[in-house]
């Protein structure tokens, strides 16, 4: 083929005509497929929650007559009824245990992660390996041992004992996640801080914590959600009805109102609202922290 013929065909010299069947798909087609997939996934994830939210403000009779209908009358008094039926006690028990455990886990985990990431001492890698191995095994295998320890130290059936168990369960993963993030903080920041006269504690509070806040917020939210919904350890280690946390309280509430679907949905919504609030306030830091931890 001559050069003039190639130019006449609208091709550059040295190229062959492109097969129409092998041409790339239009860009808008790929975006359209992505939009459809994301839309379906959104419906899949938010659909059950929205259905639960609508049932929480409807009576059982209304739900039985039209399970998927939008509420014609929003019966907010059901939330007050559920709150006065024992959910207030369950809520505050969960808040005390979970918030206290998460705060302690975050502070100790951040300090331990900083020490493992920044300082080299004998046994450094051994401690890291022990933490990693404790993450691999399921926490259920420690249930009997933790039960016996709490009984021996008179901490069984107490909120303080349950909080200590939650701290021991979440601390290894918290240290493991934060150590990977803190290890990427430039050494120049620490050198400059030492030249300015900062001690180790000041470096931790003024440099490590502010710089590592996205990762810290990520572990904080993950720990909060995990512990707020934790059931197994709470149901085994707590027997007093006045010390029940929300997951145990919901089970008891469902037994007392097993025929009242509307009240059960209301009770479940009461337990879900704190998780939603936590995500709304920390969602930006959560996304930043997960993005920063995606590449190690």
UniProtKB/TrEMBL annotation:
PROSITE patterns: ABC_TM1. Residues 1-23 are annotated as: Disordered. Keywords: Cell membrane, Membrane, Transmembrane, Transmembrane helix, Transport. It is found in: Cell membrane. This is Carbohydrate ABC transporter permease. Residues 91-282 form the ABC transmembrane type-1 domain. Coiled coil: none annotated. It comes from Xanthobacter tagetidis. It comes from the Bacteria. The keyword Transmembrane helix applies. GO terms for cellular component: plasma membrane. Pfam families: BPD_transp_1 (PF00528).
């Amino acid at each position: 083929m001559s050069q003039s013929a190639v130019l006449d065909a609208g091709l550059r010299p040295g190229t062959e005509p492109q097969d129409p069947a092998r041409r790339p798909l239009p860009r808008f087609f790929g975006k359209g497929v992505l939009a459809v997939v994301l839309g379906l996934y959104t419906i899949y994830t938010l659909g059950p929650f929205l259905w639960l939210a609508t049932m929480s403000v409807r009576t059982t009779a209304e739900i039985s007559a039209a399970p998927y209908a939008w509420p014609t009358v929003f019966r907010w008094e059901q939330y007050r009824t559920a709150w006065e039926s024992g959910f207030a006690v369950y809520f505050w028990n969960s808040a005390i245990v979970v918030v206290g455990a998460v705060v302690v886990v975050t502070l100790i985990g951040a300090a331990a992660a900083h020490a493992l990431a920044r300082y080299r001492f004998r046994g450094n890698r051994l401690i890291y390996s022990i933490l990693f191995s404790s993450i691999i095994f399921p926490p259920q295998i420690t249930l009997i041992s933790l039960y016996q320890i709490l009984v021996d130290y008179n901490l069984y059936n107490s909120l303080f004992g349950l909080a200590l168990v939650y701290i021991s369960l979440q601390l290894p993963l918290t240290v493991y996640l934060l150590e990977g993030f803190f290890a990427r903080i430039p050494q120049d920041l620490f050198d400059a801080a030492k030249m300015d006269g900062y001690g180790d504690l000041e470096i931790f509070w003024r440099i490590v914590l502010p710089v590592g806040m996205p990762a810290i917020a990520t572990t904080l939210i993950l720990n909060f959600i995990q512990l707020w919904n934790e059931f197994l350890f709470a149901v085994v280690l707590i027997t007093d009805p006045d010390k029940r946390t929300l997951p145990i309280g919901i089970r008891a509430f469902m037994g007392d109102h097993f025929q009242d679907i509307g009240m059960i949905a209301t009770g479940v919504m009461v337990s879900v609202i704190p998780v939603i609030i936590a995500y709304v306030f920390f969602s930006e830091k959560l996304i930043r922290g997960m993005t920063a931890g995606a590449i190690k």
